[in-house]
Design goal:
With about 230 residues, the protein is α/β, with parallel strands linked by helices. Helices cover about 35% and strands about 15% of the residues. The chain contains eight helices and five strands, in the order αααβββαβααβαα. A five-stranded mixed beta sheet has the order 3-2-1-4-5, with helices on both faces. α2 crosses α3 and α4 runs parallel beside α6. The radius of gyration is 20 Å and the shape is globular.
Length: about 230
């Protein structure tokens, strides 16, 4: 428990308990909490209750994800390398599964990069019904809108100045910054790309997600040797 708390310093005892169970320990949250307090580890403050995200005026926030590939959302996050130079990340999520589908990391990201990132994902995963975003110039660019329409997906833009309407991405971005960006020094863009991709894989396959019953969004599946197809 202490080793996990040291490794994942921003996790609370419930998330650590989920990681312990995933590793094969038969232990419940209450016992982990008692041990957590006994060892003097920080117990995070209870989060304030959140209001409902779904409005009654027909705004796109009423669009609730019902299945995988129903609603994707994307957003940009800014950070800096150790030399002070800015880089950006384009974070793309599946709102239903909470899986982070991709994080593109470059010094500059424009509407062409948005199309490139989505193109790669469409080939791998198919085309979602909706893509939700804010009204940033890279997202509302006519080339992006035309391209999304051409692949028969629909855009869902949030109201200007209302980031809570893109709550899934906002929540992910907060975890991304708190658990990785704020705790790392990136000496180069390449280092940032490698560490961010490692964190994305951990987030999808290992990190317990409270909204999913403390299970990861896309846990790794191991196929036993005797069940693997035989190559001729």
């Amino acid at each position: 428990m202490i080793e996990l708390a040291r490794q994942y310093g921003r996790y609370g005892y419930r998330r650590i308990a989920a990681l312990l169970r995933d590793a094969g320990w038969q232990i419940n949250d209450k016992r982990v909490e008692r041990l957590w307090r006994r060892e003097g580890l920080k117990v995070p403050m209870k989060q304030p209750k959140k209001g409902r995200l779904w409005l009654n005026d027909g705004s796109c926030v009423r669009l609730r994800p019902e299945r995988r590939n129903h609603v994707w959302s994307y957003d940009f996050v800014h950070c800096r390398t150790d030399d002070g130079k800015v880089f950006r990340t384009l974070n793309i999520l599946d709102e239903h599964s909470r899986e982070c589908l991709a994080i593109r990391v470059k010094r500059k990201l424009n509407s062409g990069d948005v199309i490139d990132a989505l193109s790669d994902l469409f080939i791998l995963r198919g085309v979602p019904a909706y893509i939700r975003s804010d009204n940033g110039p890279e997202f509302i660019a006519q080339t992006v809108q035309d391209w999304i329409k051409a692949v028969r997906a629909k855009t869902a833009y949030i109201q200007p100045g209302s980031p809570w309407e893109n709550g899934y991405c906002e929540s992910f971005n907060a975890r991304f910054r708190d658990e990785l960006l704020n705790g790392e020094v990136f000496y180069s863009l390449r280092e940032a790309q490698i560490l961010i991709e490692q964190w994305r894989k951990h987030y999808n396959t290992k990190r317990p997600h409270s909204a999913l019953g403390y299970r990861p969004p896309a846990p790794e599946t191991v196929v036993p040797m005797d069940q693997r197809p035989v190559m001729h």
